[in-house]
Design brief:
binds hypoxanthine, Rossmann fold
Length: 274
C-alpha cells in the first residue's frame, strides 16, 4: 500500500517547525561508517529519527539514526546520520521517505553516500568512487503503488540519475586536491547477507562495478522529486570471491575510518562548489 501523501507533508511540517523554518539546500545521506560527517556541520541541531513523525529507526551498525541540520561550507545541509534499509524490514518507500520530506523542505540536491563492495577488480579497499548509474533488479522500488495524484506522470526518465554537472565538479575537486576517485555502476542487492562469489561474477557480467545494500531507492525517489543527485561510494571491501577471504561487517567500518579525511574533504568541497 502506498504511503498517503499527507504522511510526507506531516513529517515536513514537524521539521519545519522544529527547525524554525530551516530550508535545506542539500540532503546528505551518510552511509555505514560515514556518519561522522554530520558532526562537521556548523551550528548543527540534531533530531533523533524516533522523534520525527513517520521516520523509521536505524538498526544497522555505524548508523546513529538522527538528522542533523546545519551548514557545511556555507550551504544549508540536512544530513542523515545513518539511513534505514530494506534488510531491516522496511519497505523501499519507507527507506526513501526522508528524501521526499527533505525535498518538501526545500532541498533540491541529494548527495548520497554509501559503503560498498568492489566488484571491479581494478578497485582497492579504501577507494572512493563516484556513481555513474544504478542497477536495481529486485523488481520493487519506492514508487510501487505510489500516490500518483501528487505528480503529473507515473513514468519518468532515469537516463541521467547522477548529475553530469555535479560529477564534473566532484572530478575537478578530486584532481585539485589529489584525492583518487573512481567511477562506476552501483548494483543493488537487498542483503543482509553478503553476496555469493557466483552472484558477484553475475553482477560483473551485467556491468556492475560496485555492490551495496542501499542507495538505489533513495536515488529513485530523488529523481521522482526532480532533485539533482550525486553519489559517492566508499569501497570498504572487495566483493565476495575477488579475494580468497571471508567478508565481515567489521571491515566496512575500519575502511570508512581510514578514508574519513579524504571523504570529508571531498564532501565539503562538493557542498561548497555544487
Ligand atoms: N556487498 C554488499 N554491500 C556491501 C558490501 C558488499 O560487499 N560492502 C559494503 N556494503
Amino acid at each position: 500500500m502506498a504511503t498517503p501523501s499527507s504522511f510526507y507533508h506531516d513529517s515536513a511540517e514537524y521539521l519545519r517547525v522544529r527547525l524554525g523554518g530551516f530550508k535545506p539546500e542539500i540532503l546528505l545521506i551518510l552511509g555505514s561508517g560515514l556518519g561522522f560527517m554530520a558532526e562537521k556541520l556548523e551550528n548543527a541541531r540534531y533530531i533523533p529519527y524516533n522523534e520525527i513523525p513517520r521516520f523509521k529507526n536505524s538498526t544497522a551498525p555505524g548508523h546513529k539514526g538522527r538528522l542533523a541540520a546545519g551548514t557545511l561550507a556555507g550551504k544549508r545541509v540536512l544530513a542523515m546520520q545513518g539511513r534505514v534499509h530494506v534488510y531491516e524490514g522496511y519497505t523501499p518507500e519507507e527507506v526513501a521517505f526522508p528524501v521526499r520530506v527533505a525535498n518538501l523542505l526545500g532541498a533540491d540536491k541529494l548527495l548520497v553516500t554509501c559503503a560498498s563492495g568492489g566488484v571491479n577488480t581494478a578497485y582497492s579497499p579504501g577507494d572512493l568512487a563516484l556513481l555513474t548509474d544504478i542497477v536495481n533488479l529486485t523488481h520493487t522500488g519506492p514508487l510501487v503503488g505510489f500516490d500518483i495524484s501528487d505528480f503529473d506522470v507515473r513514468f519518468f526518465d532515469m537516463s541521467h540519475v547522477f548529475s553530469r554537472r555535479a560529477r564534473k565538479v566532484a572530478g575537478e575537486i578530486a584532481r585539485e586536491q589529489n584525492i583518487p576517485l573512481r567511477e562506476g555502476v552501483y548494483f543493488y542487492m537487498p542483503g543482509p547477507q553478503f553476496e555469493t562469489p557466483a552472484e558477484i561474477r553475475a553482477i560483473r557480467a551485467l556491468g556492475g562495478d560496485l555492490v551495496g545494500m542501499s542507495t538505489v531507492h533513495e536515488c529513485i525517489m530523488a529523481k521522482r522529486c526532480g532533485m539533482e543527485v550525486l553519489g559517492v561510494a566508499l569501497v570498504s571491501n572487495m566483493a565476495a570471491g575477488v579475494l580468497d577471504q571471508p567478508l565481515s561487517e567489521g571491515e566496512v567500518l575500519v575502511e570508512a575510518e581510514k578514508a574519513a579525511g579524504r571523504f570529508s574533504e571531498l564532501v565539503t568541497a562538493v557542498a561548497e562548489k555544487w
